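As the work plan foresaw, our protein records have gained a structure token line. A representative record is set out beneath this paragraph:
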Amino acid sequence: MILFPAIDLKDGRCVRLERGMMESATVFNEDPAAQAEIFRAQGFKYLHLVDLDGAFAGKPVNAEAVLSIVSSGSLPVQLGGGIRNMERIAFWVDKGVERVILGTAAIENPQLVADACREFPGKIVVALDERGGRVAIRGWSELHGETAQQAAERFRDTGVAALLHTCVEQDGMMDGMNVEASVKLAQTSRLPVIVSGGFKGAKDIRRIADGRSGNEKIEGVIAGRSLYEKRFNVGEALALCERLR
């Protein structure tokens, strides 16, 4: 299992939100590339990067900050936020982004996912963000009619590298993850799932491990606000993830 430290970008700075609300942003670092280096020094192996402004705008907004991180080579990056066409996917893959996350574009244009997976095998992750039991799109500002499990059906045979499942109500609240929902998604979709929203520490990782029946794959967990606020022991959490790989 991979523990992904998250860098969410707003106005070129590292921030964390509560339940996806932009007005709740707390700035944790003015220098995203420096934050990526901090995570590398702590022992993380991968980085989860989101252009929050881009998610709302429907196009990249914090490209300069993203490029500063990717070009530094600190950690392999998976990137989401405002990536909604093949041209932009190709741009980021060419710049060295390890995996591209499609959220709104995946829900509104599933054919783009299929085409991108053929063009860039192993490089595409689909984000399924749930709020109130329904998929949320456009920076979590709009609800789609489907549940995450229903939406996942259309991506089962496309070759996506993983599904990124975020329970919006838990995101940024540090009160525990909706492990049951993410494990169920992995079971029904038969695709690797990355769990996001409300990470507290090693206890959540153990809950995920205990909740698996053996027929599903939880690829990783996203750590956000609890990591920035030093609410858990990073070394302990990384060691536990390594044992579960």
The CA atoms of residues 190 and 208 lie 16 Å apart.
